[in-house]
Design a protein that fits this description.
The structure holds two protein chains of two kinds. Chain A is mainly alpha-helical. Chain A contains four helices and two strands; from the N terminus they run H-H-E-E-H-H. In chain A, strands 1-2 form a two-stranded antiparallel ribbon. Chain A is elongated, with a radius of gyration of 24 Å. Chain B folds into two domains: 48 residues, no CATH class; 205 residues, Alpha-Beta Plaits (2-Layer Sandwich). Chain B has eight helices and eleven strands. In chain B, the strands form four sheets. In chain B, strands 9-2-11-10 form a four-stranded mixed sheet. In chain B, strands 3-4 form a two-stranded antiparallel ribbon. In chain B, strands 5-6 form a two-stranded antiparallel ribbon. In chain B, strand 5 and strand 6 form a beta hairpin. The longest helix of chain B is centred in the first third of the chain and has 25 residues. In chain B, 33% of the residues are buried. The chains are: A mainly alpha, B alpha+beta. At the A-B interface, helix 2 and strand 1 of A face strand 1 of B.
């Protein structure tokens, strides 16, 4: 069996492999650091509206339900499993405890490359320093 | 030499038997092995929606309740100063941008009599025909915008407010074509750079959605009157059209009122007292 244009093909393959493997070389075989979203200080809040496990996996569904309750039904008060009442508001309730969008929301969203459109309309309160 | 008919049928039969019996056999020998793995996110909440319980809402105890909200503008008390105050209050508290082109966004604005009341003569308007009138969404009883909206982004609430759900709006602008009062504006661009002073208590809008006056639904929910009614110093009266004892009905009883384009049958709920 004869390889036609052998040198060109082999050089091309080497260049392709080099470019393809470059990211692995640059990262040195390590994975990107898993994000650690910064929780509010204990003095601000110790509990979220729902259990942490639920919030971690399903906060987007919860926000969608909140959105429908407020806009379509006109009801603004949410009762959680423990019977506590909350005003259903992303900016005024969620972000009043999680006061840094960059350190909380964005840390995971950036890592997972998801870009929720919430912030096109909903405002982020200016961070206190 | 390929496969003859007899051999082919044998293979087919054995394959079918294996296919039918395979998973049953597997279940007998290693029960549970083929079930979907128990994922950590398969919590009882995974598919929680409003229909499946678990999440509860209650109406705001302080909310103003009405069967049919409406507005009356008393043109006797109405001055350019009150108009300015009302428009500015609305624009500020709703983050309505000011764009110096035809792409401007309007929730509440001023227009001359002849533009506000075309087609139908109002002989009783008399002295008030050379004034500017304040105009906004009429929150019609038969809203054409709601009929044409393909996504139900705009809808009529039980209390009569015609509301926009900006989350659902796809920007088709059918509602703008349907509205006979020009009460709707389209965001041709990101409105945020055009908001002079941002109010943090209300969201802005995004490029590609239609917006309009919401009769301050967010204010009614916390027991307050709309911003324009509050800022107008009594020239704009907000109330329940269905409640004979409301301030609005009292105002309507005492004076002659006109409405915009009554010939269209939309039954607008903004009345002008002349």
């Amino acid at each position: 069996m004869k390889l036609y244009n052998g040198p060109i093909i082999i050089v091309g393959l080497v260049i392709f492999l080099a470019i393809f493997l470059l990211p692995f070389y640059i990262s040195g075989g390590k994975t990107a650091a898993v994000p650690k979203p910064e929780l509010p200080k204990k003095s601000v809040a110790t509990e979220c509206v729902m259990p942490t496990e639920y919030m971690r996996t399903s906060h987007m569904q919860l926000l969608n339900v909140w959105r429908d309750m407020v806009v379509r039904d006109g009801d603004r008060i949410f009762i959680n499993e423990k019977g506590k009442h909350f005003n259903m508001s992303l900016t005024n309730t969620c972000l009043s405890c999680h006061d840094s969008k960059a350190k909380f929301c964005d840390s995971c969203h950036d890592y997972l490359a998801v870009a929720p459109v919430c912030w096109e309309c909903h405002l982020v309160p200016k961070e206190k320093k | 030499m390929g496969v003859d008919r007899r051999k082919f049928l044998k293979i087919a039969g054995i394959s079918a038997a294996l296919g039918l019996g395979g998973s049953v056999g597997w279940q007998l020998l290693r029960p549970g092995q083929l079930d979907a793995a128990e994922e950590p996110w398969n919590t009882p909440y995974q598919w929680v929606t409003r229909d499946h319980g678990a999440l509860k809402e209650v109406p705001n105890p302080r909310a103003l309740k009405g069967k049919r909200w409406g507005m009356a503008v008393d043109m006797k008390k109405f001055t350019p100063a009150t108009a300015k105050a009302a428009v500015e209050a609305c624009n500020y508290y709703h983050n309505v941008p000011s764009i110096p082109t035809k792409q401007d966004i309007k929730w509440i604005w001023l227009a001359p009599y002849k533009n506000v009341f075309p087609e139908v003569e109002n002989p009783m308007a008399g002295d008030y025909t050379d004034m500017d009138y304040i105009t906004m969404c009429n929150h019609c009883d038969q809203p054409p915008c709601v009929r044409v909206c393909p996504t139900k982004a705009t809808f009529r609430r039980d209390d009569g407010i015609v509301l926009m759900d900006f989350h659902r709006c796809i920007g088709c602008r059918f509602c703008m074509a349907a509205c006979p009062y020009g009460s709707r504006s389209f965001n041709f661009q990101d409105p945020r750079p055009f908001i002079k002073k941002q109010y943090d208590g209300f969201p802005t809008r995004a490029k590609g959605v239609v917006e309009k006056c919401n009769f301050c639904a967010e204010r009614l929910a916390v027991g307050k009157l709309p911003y324009c009614a509050e800022a107008s110093g009594g020239a704009m009266i907000f109330g329940d059209v269905d409640n004979a004892g409301s301030a609005l009905r009292k105002a309507l009883r005492g004076r002659y009122s006109i409405r915009r384009k009554p010939n269209l049958g939309t039954n607008p709920q903004v009345y002008y007292l002349v």
